[in-house]
Amino acid sequence: MYSISEASSELGVTPHSLRYYEKEGIITPDRSPSGVREYTESHMKWLKFVLKLRETQMPISTIKKYTALFLEGDHTMEERLSLLEEHQRNIQEQLQTLLSTNEMLNNKIGSYKRVMAEHTSDS
Question: Which domain of life, per UniProt (predicted)?
């Protein structure tokens, strides 16, 4: 079991973020008899997945929808699959954008280096 501070440290997020995910219904940690949040390994695995979705720009609203579908049960698998496939397409588009931008930057950087090298050799 992880406390909220241990979980946040392990995940690299703030306790506030974990409380936010709880408020949004994305995670429901266990509670100790005194009401302290307790995160299991299963919670941690789920949160790592959620954080990866966020890192790749999945909106909170979509994560909430995915979570609600998951909690509904196996009869929602097709819809969950569809959400993940759509997100994967978005990631692939992001990758293409990043690759083309990186190529453009490589060309621009090469251009600057050539001009600077010419100026240096002229001196």
Answer: Bacteria
